[in-house]
Amino acid sequence: MLNQEQTLKAVQVMGDMFPDAQPSLRSRTPFQYLVSVMLSAQATDVSVNLVTPTLFKDFPDPQAFANATETEIQADIRSIGLYRNKAKHIKAASQQLLRDFDGVVPQTHHELMSLPGVGRKTADVVLADAFHIPAFAVDTHVTRVTKRLKIVPESANTLKIEQIVMSKLPEDLWITAHHRMIYFGRYHCTARNPKCEVCPLLDMCETGQQRLGAADTTAPLKK
Ligand code: SF4
């Protein structure tokens, strides 16, 4: 397992590789950001950004979503996977925001996760990116990267990954580390073809060393 110092080093190297790593969902308000994150489950940020300008023009705030029918919301997000469920959750979350929080997006895990369709990852992303409250969200890229680099054990679930990474990094780096790992996973340590042969983290990555060793059995493993 990588220790605290090695984990910090890995995140710094990712920052050198992707100095512009930052949120890619576009929105104007915390509420719109919440809706965008809810839409992004099992969908790309690019596909979400394509529908949200029209969606937020038609429904700019919780009141507008609460007053709309699910069919009306669906019409604006039809190109997004699971759009029926997402329309249902966004309308219900908007109604609950109005009822329990005066229409204002809350700023705690507990309150955010009380909203329909809002899980831990969505809550973490909203806290971090909409409110700049230290949090570490775990998605598919973060899961893959932290396991390959052995920052966390292979058996770790998303909650465990979140806890281990936060214990190994200073709090003021949690949000940045999340974005760097996403870029690193999206463009370099990709699911199918990680660029191990040109990876600046190869020296500390047993997974990469094993992959390259398996690809060329005549080459010695890097230490
Ligand atoms: Fe990912 Fe390969 Fe780099 Fe390891 S060496 S972090 S598996 S790209």
Task: Please summarize what this structure is.
The protein has helices at 4-17, 30-39, 45-58, 62-67, 70-77, 83-101, 109-112, 120-131, 140-148, 158-168, 174-187, 206-215.
Unreliable sequence segments:
none
Shape: elongated
What is the CATH superfamily label of the largest domain?
Answer: Hypothetical protein, domain 2
Return Rg in Å: 19 Å
- Estimate percent helicity: 55-70%
Order of helices and strands: HHHHHHHHHHHH
Number-wise, the strands total 0
Counting DSSP H or I runs of 4 or more residues, the number of helices is: 12
The CATH architecture designation of the largest domain is: Orthogonal Bundle
Distance between the termini: 15 Å
Number of domains: 2
**Main sheet properties:** none
Mean pLDDT: 95
Question: What percentage of amino acids are in beta strands?
Answer: under 5%
Named CATH topology of the largest domain: Endonuclease III, domain 1
Q: What is the CATH class of the largest domain?
A: Mainly Alpha
**What molecules are bound to this protein?**
iron/sulfur cluster
Structural class: mainly alpha
Enzyme class: lyase
Domain HhH-GPD: 39-187
Catalytic activity: 2'-deoxyribonucleotide-(2'-deoxyribose 5'-phosphate)-2'-deoxyribonucleotide-DNA = a 3'-end 2'-deoxyribonucleotide-(2,3-dehydro-2,3-deoxyribose 5'-phosphate)-DNA + a 5'-end 5'-phospho-2'-deoxyribonucleoside-DNA + H(+)
Binding site for [4Fe-4S] cluster: 189, 196, 199, 205
